[in-house]
Amino acid sequence: MSSTTSRIVQLAALPDGLPRPEHFAVVQAPMPVPDDGEVLVRNRFFQVFPALRTLIGGGVKGTPFPPLRPGDALFGAAIGEVVSAPPDAGVRPGDLVQHWLGWREHAVMPAAECTPLDGTLPDPAAHLGQAAVVYTALTRDAPVRPGDTVFVSGGSGGVGSLAGQFARLLGADRVIGSTGSPDKAARLVSELGYDAALVRGERPIAEQLAEAAPEGIDVLVDNVGGEQLRAAITAARPGARFVIVGTLAGQLSPNGTGTTAPVEIDTFQLIAKRIEMRGFAGLDDTGPHPEWAERFGAWLRSGAVTFPHARIAGIDQAPRALHELISGQHLGAVIVEL
């Protein structure tokens, strides 16, 4: 790469079904040049996340991200090193910052759109995990109480691989996860704080959940929807708290667009059991030392939790990394390292 160009990942063509590596292109683009008040960043890591399938499919009205069209550059959470910055930017060359212009080697943005990293987490790449989402979901949206039984659908993904560990530390008595293979199920139990793991496709999830939680569940962290949400409603105890974080059953359906996630549920059960169900409400704690980061950093340093993730080396491998994520080949977050 010359000093006048920088590589970027673009959507090359709209897929018929799930996207594959051939639907993307890694291209040379002119090196971005910052205007007054802007920061130039050389990216070191960026996150690969399944919601890209939804954006490629046309997006969902009311969500903050625009749909992607052929020729558009992909984007997402990234960690980079400041190359240049104006004197009043609050960051200096060499500082690490987090921002939303991943999927490229260099990015330019207003200084206000990048967040300096302060060492709260021992590994900068851990900022690209879902710890903030998990901690907020389990302390605000569906708060875990001592003695609770917690069910996490999609327990081996970026959210689920942390949710089992966090739920245990927040006081849960029993934690159950679901995943797509026996190998991952074994790892949920041996490595990630789960007492039991359900395997999608082996038997009906409702049947497996009834065996794993014969007295019912108190909390659901739902990353999947579909059959697993129905099973959780059946297993819910009175007053159960549900938080809907993801919709992977619809998002990654090969026969859909990834923009809808319909599921038929028995609303009588919601009433009879007084189930509280809410969509994840986003992150409010965005100050310089948010509680989730302080606690996650302390847990990582003490060894109380791990940050499960796969690091894929090189921007040329980014389209393959997305395909592998969609195919369920990794456990935890998927991060491209530049």
From TrEMBL:
Keyword Protease belongs to the record: no
Tree of life domain: Bacteria
Protein name: NADP-dependent oxidoreductase
CDD domains xref list: PGDH (cd05288)
Pfam annotation, one family: ADH_zinc_N
Domain Enoyl reductase (ER): from-to ranges: 17-336
Keywords, in A-Z order: Oxidoreductase
